[in-house]
Design goal:
It contains 11 helices and 8 strands. With 249 residues, the protein is α/β, with parallel strands linked by helices. α2 runs parallel beside α3. The structure holds pyridoxine-5'-phosphate.
């Protein structure tokens, strides 16, 4: 498989921290999960430091920066506090995501088009210290164009609507969402942006997205950590890796 063909897998370890925090102690340790993920062939580790610290903590981020041999993709809201944390740690990549305190997870993509000026200023210092800036957005031409204009190098397409439609048996809608993801991957690539995708992917939904030739990386968390309960973390990751490789070969 050529480097262009190979799809990178970023394993999101947030929900190891969710389980740990349910009891307020230090078990299970997300850093241990990250090292197992590395061993299983993860190309990167993704962690989202939320403003309310509901899963990943500041100490987790510091620890990940210390122990990881693969790049850290640091997900964060576009706030002053998070920018300072990112500038301190200088992770390989910073992925800007929308964050509302009341939501259960990252519900939609970032509204780049409406906040173009602010975001352009926000990401400049991050780029200056060498972080690759990625923007988590819906498969929407306007948002992609705006992400490109503000100087992002990467966009991550939100696959949540596609995955939800699949899970709920709304197959026409699922296919429309998939088509939009396919078209917008090609469009973003044509602008020179690197294309990533993620949110809600599982063994059933991963292959159609992994098949888009322009997509270079998938970030997957909740399903892998859930599946690890049943088959162990390393086998759960290896199966995801196998499915991704199968469609790219
Ligand atoms: N990509 C981004 C930008 C995300 O915010 C998340 C969820 O934190 C994911 C990928 C992973 O989503 P999931 O945990 O549903 O696999």
């Amino acid at each position: 498989m050529t480097d262009e063909q190979r799809l990178r897998l970023g394993v999101n370890i947030d929900h190891v921290a969710t389980v740990r925090n349910a009891r307020g102690g230090d078990y299970p340790d997300p850093l241990r999960a990250a090292k197992i993920a590395e061993k299983a062939g993860a190309d990167g580790i993704t962690a989202h430091l939320r403003e309310d610290r509901r899963h990943i903590s500041d100490a987790d981020i510091a620890g990940l920066m210390e122990v990881l041999d693969v790049p850290l993709n640091f997900e964060m809201a576009a706030t002053e506090e998070m920018q300072q944390i990112a500038l301190r740690h200088r992770p390989h990549a910073v992925c800007l995501v929308p964050e509302k305190r009341e939501e259960r997870t990252t519900e939609g993509g970032l509204e780049v088009a409406r906040e173009e000026n602010r975001l352009a200023h926000f990401i400049a210092p991050l780029r200056d210290v060498g972080c690759r800036v990625s923007i988590f957005i819906a498969a929407d031409r306007k948002q992609i164009e705006a992400a490109n204009r503000i100087g992002a190098e990467v966009i991550e397409l939100h696959t949540g609507a596609y995955c939800d439609a699949h899970a709920e048996g709304r197959y026409d809608e699922r296919d429309r969402e998939l088509q939009a993801l396919r078209d917008m991957s090609a469009f973003a690539h044509s602008l020179g942006l690197e294309v990533h995708a993620g949110h809600g992917l599982n063994y059933e939904t991963v292959q159609p997205v992994a098949a888009f030739p322009e997509v270079r990386e998938l970030n997957i968390g909740h399903f892998i950590i859930g599946e690890a309960i049943f088959r162990g973390l390393e086998p759960a990751i290896l199966e995801m890796r196998r499915l991704m490789d199968e469609v790219r070969s």
